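Re: How this chain folds, sequence and tokenised backbone to follow

Filed under: protein folding, tokenised backbone structure, sequence and structure records.

Contents: The amino acid chain and a row of whole-number tokens, matched residue for residue.

Body of memo: The sequence and its backbone structure tokens, given next.
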Amino acid sequence: MKIENIKIEKLVFGGQGLSHLEDGKVIFVWNVLPGEVVDIEIVKKKKDYSEAIAINIVEVSPERVESKDKHFLSTSPWQIMSYNTENKWKKEISIETYKKLGGDVFENIDPEIIFPEEEYGYRNKMEFSFYDSDEKPNVFSLAFFERGKKNKFPLEKSELADPIINQSSKEILNWVNKQGLERRNLKTLIVRSDGKGNSIAALFVKDEIEFKNYPKLNKNNLGLQIYYSTHKCPASVPTKLLYSEGQDFLIADLLGTKLKFGLLSFFQVHIPIFTKALTDITKHIESNTEVVDFYSGVGSIGLPLAKKQKQIILVDSNEEAIEYAKENILLNKLNNCEAHCIPAEKMTEIITKDKTIILDPPRAGLHADVTKKLLEAEPPKIIYLSCNLSTQARDVKILAEKYNITFSRIYNFFPRTPHVEGLVVLELNQS
């Protein structure tokens, strides 16, 4: 459905532009900037709101710039604005989200936003689909899905990706196109880099295929795995390993600590800006402290702190991540660290009054049992890093029963996208 001449009021949490239809119904629109008048195509209708994409910009904002990627709407919809405008809106939206969902506890905060100089080429992980046309069946391109739709479209590269990822994915694609595969055979390609010019990759296929030859590794492409991934699951989940050569891991350096991570385990996608957040975290933990790092992943926060602390306890429910965490403890010869593969809410007994607690949960935020135990045990300090400010604000509002915010900062981990991460330091109210 096409609607003409909608005026955009502002940008909102999630990255879309806000407007209202003639009947007063709220509509969220992609590919817009505040003040623009646009023609839109509605892509989703809900009871209380609709979502749309601008297909024609009638009145253009002076802040609009030409996007680098043709496919920017799928991966980085904020390529259309200047970088200064992006960071201004990220700060404004972050403060609005905190105050709207966190209430009075956020009333007086004015967090600084930290952002990298580099706007592009920073992502150390990309997942591509495959595309072939009816005119050229079984001649494949890398692909993404259109935003709000089920259609795929071809692409040559991603401007957000580390250059070695674009290079490696192209080499694997060239090999794929020599194998005589059909559309139904292919699922996805995941490529990761270490920020130092090296990559590893995994190809997911929907049949148990034996190939006559395989892509050749080189000094920069360190490893390749090919997985059969059942068609019953749309996600890139390994069902069976069909082929493996070279490494299935990379190693990054964070504050002098070497961290091994796998292709499928979680690791920060922007290492330089994450290092800035990690540096801020270190400033808020006194030396010789017992620290619990919940949702720890491979230990990217807790382990770089270990040399100055009495003890570090890592907790995460992801088995692969904790296996790497244990390897990282050995790799760095840390005798004061331990790692446990268990959901945080199943190990709340380690939250005590004498420990500092670090939290870096998934987008859903803290489990209610974790929040409850924090309020009961009253640890002196809680350091909460989040990729979802809305659930972070919700959790901090609950913790504010006994805690005060003593530090907050926003980090632009994901330039040219709407996403940010927020750091909040909470200290026990002594009154």
